[in-house]
Amino acid sequence: MRKLLALLASFTAVPAAAQDSLVTTEQVSQQRLLARGGGHIAEIIQEGSGNLAETIQSGTGNRATIRQDGAGNSAAIRQSGHGLRADAAQSGGVPGIAITQSGRAGSIQVQQFGRGGAGAR
Q: How does pLDDT run across 14-71, given as a tens digit for each residue?
């Protein structure tokens, strides 16, 4: 019985995501981060209000960064593979970015700038 309790206690201390995945978030707008596999890096930086951001990663060694400035921006990055990199930057309440990557060692960078939000330049 003690062995069973020790085994169950060891499972409760394990985080839901992979232990070697790094996730960084700033801001209290709506964000969703999900990583399966290992060695992922996901970073979401938001300035303003009403921004939506989502990263979903599977495989190994993927990196996703979303930067949002203004109000009403939305972005999603979905990665399935190995060594993928995606960067999304939005400013000024633009319609939205959706990036889907699969395979090995690909990269993409998308920038959107609008006039409607607080972050417009």
A: 333 444 556 566 655 566 667 778 888 899 999 888 889 999 999 999 999 999 998 8
Please give the angle made by the CA atoms of 113, 48 and 78, to the nearest 5 degrees: 65
The structure's pTM equals 0.71
Written as six digits, the tokens of 95 are: 């319609």
Q: Is residue 120 part of a domain?
A: no
Per-residue CA distances from 64 to 1, 15, 67, 79, 114 (Å): 44, 20, 10, 8, 22
Tokens representing 61 are 């060694």
In a domain, 57, yes or no: yes
CB 45 within 8 A of CB 116: no
Provide the residue range defining the domain that includes 50: 21-113
- Please tell me whether residue 112 adopts helix, strand or coil conformation: strand
